[in-house]
Specification:
twelve-stranded parallel β-sheet; mainly beta; five-stranded parallel β-sheet; 19 strands; globular
Length: 191
């Protein structure tokens, strides 16, 4: 990947991700990666960023099962969602930041609930709109989850939203030492 924030790094990042999984390696990246197509974050990827910012130009990255991602800033640059996680299980995001999305900084489980997930020292800011309560920094449907030392501050929508309905129950999700300040709608919203 070039990592200059202008060149489309999608092909290079996809190839590096596949190589890392196939060879049981940890993928380490630096710089600013511009993605102009889907980033296929494959099952079992361990990804460690050293100051990496991923900017979305046209599509939203989404992750699969058994993924561990550390240290990425996901900058939606006004697109709908910085990072989408739908129906995938056993993932950990640590030291990640979700910024500048029109709807959700991190959206998890809207199509199918996520299970056995962890967010550790993650933050979300400048996401959402004041039009709906769902627009938020962090939006999740899920089971057996942990949010530890996470912050959702200064979002135009809500800070953190944990949704529940009869077909997608949200159960056994823990918040430990989390904060939600200066959000236009709600700090924490569960239903």
């Amino acid at each position: 990947a070039v990592g200059d924030g202008v060149t489309d790094d999608t092909v290079a990042i996809n190839a590096a991700s596949t190589f890392a999984v196939d060879n049981n390696e940890i993928l380490v990246c630096y710089g600013i990666a511009a993605l102009k197509a889907d980033w296929v974050i494959t099952d079992s990827l361990v990804f460690e960023a050293k100051g990496l910012t991923i900017t979305r130009v046209s599509t939203q990255p989404s992750i699969n099962n058994n993924v561990n991602i550390k240290g990425v800033t996901w900058d939606a640059q006004g697109s709908q969602t910085s990072l989408l996680v739908t129906g995938y299980n056993n993932w950990v995001l640590s030291d990640c930041h979700f910024n500048n999305a029109a709807k959700f900084g991190l959206e998890g489980g809207a199509g199918s609930p996520v299970e056995d997930f962890k967010l550790i020292r993650c933050s979300a800011s400048n996401n959402g709109s004041s039009l709906t309560t769902e627009d938020s920094g962090i939006f999740l449907y899920g089971k057996r989850g942990l949010l530890f030392d996470c912050k959702a501050n200064d979002n135009t929508g809500s800070g953190m939203v944990l949704r529940n309905n009869s077909s997608q129950p949200t159960v056994d999700v823990q918040f430990i030492n989390c904060q939600a300040h200066r959000n236009t709608r709600h700090g924490f919203l569960t239903s």
